[in-house]
Structure formats: C-alpha cells, structure tokens
Amino acid sequence: MSTQGKKFRIAIKNTQPLLVVGVVNAYCAKMAETIGHKALYLSGAGVANASFGFPDLAITTLNDVVEDAKRITQATDIPLLVDIDTGFGGAFSIGRSIKEMIDANVAAIHMEDQVSQKRCGHRPNKNLVDKSEMSDRIKAAADGRTDESFFIMARTDSYASEGIDGVIDRCEEYIAAGADGLFLEAISSLDDYRKLKETLQVPVLANITEYGKTPLFSAKELASVGVDIMLFPLSAFRAMNKAAEMVYQDIISNGTQKQSVDSMQTRDELYEYLNYHSFEQKLDELFNNSGKK
After folding, report:
1. Is 136 a catalytic residue?
2. N or C: which end of the chain has fewer CB within 10 A?
C-alpha cells in the first residue's frame, strides 16, 4: 500500500530539490496539484492568518490545524506536509498530534525547538528549549507514529543564536531521537546548508519565505549545496491577499469592479479546476432519470 508518507519520501528522492508549495485551503491545493506540483504544505501561520484572522503566535490548536489539513487531503492526492508548531503540548499530546495527522491522511509534519509560546521564525526574541527537551518531543512524536512511513521533520530555530555549529550539534541529537529530516529556519548562507548536509546526511529543507532572513535562493543554487526540499510556505497566500486588497479598494473607490475584472480568474477557469461540469452532468442524469421505472 502506497501511503502518503511513502509518496512524500519517494518525491524527495525523485526531485532535487522537491518544490513544496503552501496552500491555505482545498481549492488552492487543487490548483497546485493540477498545475503539476508534487507536494503541498499547510503552514501554522497560514491556518492562523487565513482561517482565523490571528497572528502566528501559538493561538490556534491541534483541532484547528487538523480540520484544515483534512479539507486539503480530501481534495487532493499528493502528499501534504503540515506545521505542528511545538507539538501542541507534552509527550502524550504530541503523540496524539501525530496520530491525528496520520488519520487525516497527512504525509509529514515538522515540529520546532522553540518554547511553547512560540514566535514567527523570522522575528526577533525567539526563545528555544534545550536540545534534550526537543529530543524528547521528537521521541514522543516517533512513538506516536502508527505508520512507519510517516515523515517526522525536526525544525530548529537555533541558527540566529547559536550559528551553524550550534545547529549541527542540536540536529545530531534530533536525528538520534528519531527525526527523519531537518528544517533549518532563517538560514542566510548557502555554505551553511552545505555544511549541515555534508555532516548529517539526511533530507534537509530550506524555507524560502518572502520578507524574511533567508535570501530567495533558486532551486539550482540550493541543489548545488545538497538541499533536498525547497519550501514556499505562503507565497501564493501573500499574492492572493494583495490581489484581494486591490479589488476591495477598487470597489470602494469606484463603485464597481470593472477595472479589476481583467486580473480575476474567470468563471470557466474556476470550473475547470473544480471539474464543475462533471458534477452538473451527474445532477442532470439523476434529475432526468427521476421517477422512471
């Protein structure tokens, strides 16, 4: 049986780097899949911002994230990587988080080494737990795994305070505790990705988020230093927000949306992604056959 975790692992092996795009809802997921992407991402910030209008400050819960994840996995077939922040509690809660994700048909998660009252990884004043506490989190996640192919990724925010040597020191313990891959947050140097990859020899993710600490490295640049996964967590979401803002401003300024129509996705394009006409055809068949013997 090809589980979502197996699909994710195969995708990592088959593409260097694997481009993983963020989606904030099921429709975005369907568009990304149709366009040809091989893996998707649900950001904790995306859940907080898009579904609840909250900042990314550990306000949303496990149930909030699971609900958004389910909507995506029910709409698409490609593997989904999910941000579970610091695991949503202690050891038993982390184990439950993993079981819930697997039950939701999620392929992989990443969990970070910040304190439970976490902050955005590209903001100042982050506080980290020590490496033994993070290792315990990973052990709890691995113990909660009901599918051995489910991919557990350790994210470290230690680069800002401990440098690449501190990152490597931490990550060695995270791998020993059961992490399948590593997520380095707010890295500024290609050489540091190379150093980590050469030292630890496990899949490494580069978070290429806009307006953050990490330069917008290209896939070619990251492949040259051995990076396995390239993450675009909120790129489409930011573009969607800007487009929506412009339409709202156009309507309130001009009393019409006419000037914005050319920048919109058409009704036909929407229907194409949704496979709308097949649903309508089914309704017609049911209606036309109703009452017939």
Report:
1. no
2. C
Enumerate helices (H) and strands (E) in the chain, giving the number of each. 12, 8
DSSP codes, 57-82: SS-S-HHHHHHHHHHHHHH--S-EEE
* Catalytic residue selected from 100, 112, 157, 228: 112
Check if 155 is active-site: yes
Tens of pLDDT, residue by residue over 55-83, are 999 999 999 999 999 999 999 999 999 99
Q: Which helix (H) or strand (E) holds 92?
A: helix 91-103
Out of 9, 37, 110, 145, pick the active-site residue.
Answer: 110
Under 8 Å CB-to-CB from 132, ≥6 apart: which residues?
173
Give the C-alpha separation, 146 to 95, whole Å.
10
pLDDT > 90? residue 190 = yes
List, for residues 240-283, the tens digit of each pLDDT value.
999 999 999 999 999 999 999 999 999 999 999 999 999 999 99
171 annotated active-site? no
The residue written with tokens 């339409």 in the block is: 247
Is 275 part of the annotated catalytic residue set? no
**Catalytic pick from 9, 33, 49, 120?**
120
